[in-house]
């Protein structure tokens, strides 16, 4: 009877290890520290109790598997023994695993110290370390959000969101097979097809895994200046041939110091994308494990080079993971989006004088970035991030990162007049030394006028230069009223910029569906609302670009003209903080959706 019960426990543990851990909905608060070793508070929540039971069963299963299926002896001088703790607590039993010594290079003690302090700083709480050592890179099991990476813990959302954006690029716009590139001998993908349906549940597991691997490879090579990719690994995740993926995912690895990191971290350097792809495909289970997000971040940092990362930053003394809640910094997000760990989102550099400058985004990117902070006038996102090659954006709020994307790349297509606007705006922003404040000097303005071939009448030129500096909003209104033959973008049709399209927003952290049809999951003592990632479809209507007089007229009561009423009177719209982010890309856009409002927190 006892043997039968043990077998049932083992079976249950292995089944649970094949499932994802239920994500925790509270992301912005530190994890509660345990009050005692092995003791359980009387007020333990059902979710916490379930996770504790799952950990205990998985640890027991891991121990029993090692007894029943011991590893065969390895050749002399090929193996060495490292003590790896099973479970997350110091009092858990130490299990000794045999670890191959040919898994890659070790970091030196100095490099480990530099890496750990760069990421976490010199003083990091256990709750922050727990967040970053308990987040794998795994797709949501929910059919409606199956193409999204699910977030279990607070903190690593910046890593997941940036990676999610690239995964969507491959799933939506690069569904074809690999095509050889004659230039570097590496591969690119066909761009002649894209997803035109929102039936995301039809995407296969194989397609998602391929998109994930390709995305990781692209990001790592981008961090390595397209010359190299460094792929990191932890020593107890490597032996996939013995099918110990479940044990690795169940146990995780406690990393509390640079010395802990130095003992278990290994890395390999690859100079061709083909070899890096093969390595990532063979070790994808390590990145799917509970240490996956941290492992990928470390790979990106090593690909860039630790010294280069520090040189990218404006203040290299601050940790990349911010206190007190352990959120990913903008430097982490920028590293994964453009390959450089710069802290700002404006284009190029901002010269502060005296040889000092602030670093921004130096080139156009494949997937972009929008932030709520711009709508609050805390920063200005440059055109490089705002207008990426593909209509996919990481969305930043005060404490979280999510993803916005469109299925149709034409949402970013611009007509002749809109292209003219972008040209003038880029020239203006390149000389804006206010950190996105939207004004430049008279001298810089004359450079913009010459570069963009704007021919303002003398009276207009004197008026706009009268204050000693030029504000973008004022210049923009002058250009709107200036004829095209003088370098302006006056629109005789009144329809310039008008467009309507659908766009999607994905939030990988679990949320309760307020209007989700009453779905709930059973727990001990009752039921709780279903927690799952959120995917919201929004309809976006962008009005024409009017002059101030035309804009004011559209706000007046409808005229007798049926056409004017149809064009100028928008339908009642909905509002959420995400709408403010969208309006930083499409000015005055009106958004609507069905069901719960999209959440960016």
Written description of the protein model:
The protein has 601 residues and is an alpha+beta fold. Helices cover 37% and strands 17% of the residues. It is built from 22 helices and 21 strands. The strands form eight sheets. A six-stranded mixed beta sheet has the order 12-13-14-17-20-21, with helices on both faces. Helix 5 (157-173) crosses helix 6 and helix 6 (205-223) packs across helix 13.
In a few lines, what is going on in this structure?
By secondary structure, this protein is an alpha+beta fold. The chain has 22 helices and 21 strands.
Strand order of the largest sheet: 12-13-14-17-20-21
- Helical proportion? 25-40%
Radius of gyration: 27 Å
**DSSP E strands, number:** 21
First-residue to last-residue Cα separation? 50 Å
The backbone outline, from C-alpha atoms, is globular
Mean pLDDT: 78
Note the total helix count.
22
Helix/strand structural class? alpha+beta
The major β-sheet equals: 6 strands, mixed
DSSP strand content: 15-25%
Please state the oligomeric state of the protein chains shown. single chain
Low-confidence stretches: 17-41, 66-101, 177-196, 238-250, 555-570
